[in-house]
Amino acid sequence: MPHDHSELLHRVKTELPTDELLSDLSDLFKLFADSTRVKILYALFESEMCVCAIAELLGMTQSAISHQLRILKDANLVANRRAGKTVYYFLSDDHVRTIIAQGFEHLIEE
Amino acid sequence: MPHDHSELLHRVKTELPTDELLSDLSDLFKLFADSTRVKILYALFESEMCVCAIAELLGMTQSAISHQLRILKDANLVANRRAGKTVYYFLSDDHVRTIIAQGFEHLIEE
DNA sequence: CATTCATATGAATTACTGTTCATATGATAA
DNA sequence: TTATCATATGAACAGTAATTCATATGAATG
């Protein structure tokens, strides 16, 4: 007979956030789980930038950058403004800096 | 002729961490980018747990949990101890709490 | 030593995701 | 309006990653 954990399970279960919240949380971290997106966000820490400047900075195609910017925008991590033909992207939320900085700290404290 | 960003690019480029570091950073966030792993870590916030207890808590197979625990262990986010047949896993680093808590805060401040 | 429980692991499968390519949209200038 | 630049987007492709299944390892117990 397998061993019993019902007491522990009950206690831990009551402390665990809902599945939906935990799923939202992993979805949030997914945004930072790609080096292209992290690079884009890091670049935007310095200054707003247009799509082609980001593409040039990262040495990637305009299309690839555009796709990633869409993901970041859908998640409300970045926003944009249009100036003629050019579209400038910028951080829409300063919380992003904190999250990335926290990850960074973990890395250097190894 | 496409427009010029050389000044901006130069400035941003000097501020950007190396590709390797940015890649390590996204690799770190990848660990939190799966809801199963986030659930496991959250559970371990409360108490160390054996593999089968985690599997039962999350309603998943022992094998699936074992595979994920290996990923977390390889990344030094969890460690384990053996007690007879049972292997208990626990957080090896309290930094994990901070990173997850930061993500959580972002979610609720929406 | 054979059996059982707990865990680990390799291979296969399936689902997802990032990039590319081709093309569309949108804006400006000639 | 036509041409050009900047960006967006859909489809296809390729690589990745999570789960399952079968099985192996490792420890305790009879």
Features of this protein?
6 helices, 110 residues, three-stranded antiparallel beta sheet, DNA-binding, homodimer, alpha+beta
**H/E element sequence of chain A:** HHHEHHEEH
The chain pair forming the largest interface, with residue counts per chain, is: A-B, 54 and 54 residues
The radius of gyration computed from the alpha-carbon positions of chain A, rounded to a whole number of angstroms, is 19 Å
What overall form of chain A do the CA principal axes indicate?
elongated
* N- and C-termini, Cα separation of chain A: 42 Å
Strand order of the largest sheet of chain A: 1-3-2
Secondary-structure-derived class of chain A: alpha+beta
Roughly what percent helix of chain A?
55-70%
Report the sheet-strand fraction of chain A: 5-15%
Write the layout of secondary structure elements.
2 copies of one chain form a homodimer.
Chain A: H1 6-15, H2 19-31, H3 35-46, E1 49-50, H4 51-58, H5 62-74, E2 78-83, E3 86-91, H6 95-108
Antiparallel strand pairs in A: 1-3, 2-3
Chain A binds a DNA duplex (30 and 30 nucleotides) through helix 5.
Description:
The structure is a homodimer of 110-residue chains. The first copy, chain A, has 110 residues and is of the alpha+beta class. The model of chain A has no long low-confidence stretch (mean pLDDT 95). The first copy, chain A, has helices spanning 6-15, 19-31, 35-46, 51-58, 62-74, 95-108, and strands at 49-50, 78-83, 86-91. Chain A contains six helices and three strands; from the N terminus they run H-H-H-E-H-H-E-E-H. Chain A has a three-stranded antiparallel beta sheet. The radius of gyration of chain A is 19 Å and the shape is elongated. Chain A binds a DNA duplex (30 and 30 nucleotides) through residues 1-3, 30, 34, 36, 50-52, 60-70, 82, 84-87.
